[in-house]
Amino acid sequence: MATEAVERPAAFRFGQQYKSQLMRSLDTVDLEAVGRAIELLAEARDRNRHIFVCGNGGSASTASHFVCDMVKGASFNRPLRFRIMALTDSLPTLTAYANDVSYDCVFAEQLKNFAQREDVFLAISGSGNSPNLICAMEYANSIGCKTIALTGRDGGKLGPMANLEIRVAEPHMGRIEDGHMIVCHMLCYYFMDHGQAG
Q1: Residue 70 lies inside a defined structural domain of this protein
Q2: Structure pTM?
Q3: Which terminus of the chain has a lower count of CB atoms within 10 Å, N or C?
Q4: Which long-range contacts (CB under 8 A, 24 or more apart) does 42-45 make?
């Protein structure tokens, strides 16, 4: 019991500290950039363009979660729907390219199958330096896609490559990932809460 009494205040203080640091991290997000991303997504929907999303690790989960929200929540029972896919979600394709060619090309090679000029490509990376995301961004830019980078820290190499960067300027990866999920919810809930409004 004595040990439990000592540990609880430390755990409580950690929660308070994490929350306050997360709030400061969110203050670094450029909400005008979020608004521009909403406009790009609305334009893609209205013009029947495809949207491609990807990331690694926790960012892969964020990509899948975001796509789920857009495919269902922002599209169900609406006359205009989002043509959006997560390049992270085909495990056979990912592992085939990673095993037989290179992990660096797992996203770019999928874009070569599906992406066209004026489509939207969204890359999610806390460091901004993942080689496979940089490779995919290079390809997306080369064919005239509209590109968005959701980054952290200083944006890495990925941020400046994109047409639009939304950055959580925070060193802690957990809080970067928290911020990315909140930004993704800003994007999808705009469409959920505003229906077909562009």
Answers
A1: yes
A2: 0.93
A3: N
A4: 42/191, 42/198, 43/198, 44/82, 44/83, 44/119, 44/120, 44/146, 45/80, 45/81, 45/82, 45/83, 45/191
